[in-house]
Amino acid sequence: MIRGTAGDTTNETKRSTGAAMSDDPTILSMHSGYDTNGVYTDGFLARPARGTGLPGVVLLSGMGGMTWVQREITRRYARAGFVALSPDYMGEALDSHAERLRAKNALDVDTAVDRIVGAAAFLRSLPWVGPKGSVGIMGFCLGGGLVLLALGRSDAFQSGVVYHHSLFPDDRELDGIDCPLQYHVGTDDHSTPRIEIEAFLKALEQRGKTCELHWYEGMGHSFAQIAPDADVPKAQKDATDLSCERSFEFLARTLAGKTKVTA
Asked: Is 53 in contact with 133 (CB distance < 8 Å)?
């Protein structure tokens, strides 16, 4: 059973770490949350200010959890026309790399996947998506691996986008994936090295599955986990924008039949 709430805190306080995208009158963003079989998951929801029957997308952060950057990414997807939900599957936002690694290694993966699948049901309970609405999923790093597990273990999602997964499911977990899949990774990613990507693609091929793969020259791990106004090198900003455009187009095409979405 899925129950949830979407609050009305649409004018979030602006933080020094990024521009308040909630000032954009074309979208609404708010604290949210839902229950999956008695387990509550906090979340952050952003959606177009108008419209129903919109495509939904569940967005999974990396091991940093529900950071300000993840909220800004959620708003960016809303600006592109999606009802976007970032579930706080980590339970907190973590600052140091050591804290993030400890939380990642201690994560109850099965419970996290259940919560993520529950997020799709929650989106379909909202009038902006609807009970028959299409829902996709996108994840960074640890979240990318959880995307693969959620796709392999359920039919809750109609398409998936993975950024440089750093949780590597057993190949048998890929058997259940039966939807379009897109993948983004930098050529200089040492957390998700090329050898892992090649093994992943080979496992998909052996199962008769395909993946739309995009490499980003010179980019390292987590290159696209930045706020829209982040002060980063132009090459990283350009790669991030290109990956977002590709993700938006892919999700729009596979979820709603559209061919052009910008944000």
From this structure: yes
Distance in angstroms (rounded) separating the CA atoms of residues 114 and 102: 21
Predicted TM-score (pTM) of the model is: 0.88
CB atoms within 10 A of CB 191: 14
Distance CA 140, CA 20 (A): 22
* Domains of the chain with CATH codes: 2-256 (3.40.50.1820)
Q: Using an 8 Å Cβ cutoff, are 203 and 171 in contact?
A: yes
Report pLDDT digits (tens) over 97-143.
777 667 676 688 999 999 999 999 999 999 999 999 999 999 999 99
In the sheet with 56-60, reading across from the earlier edge strand, the strands are 2-6, 27-36, 39-48, 83-87, 56-60, 135-140, 159-163, 181-186, 212-216
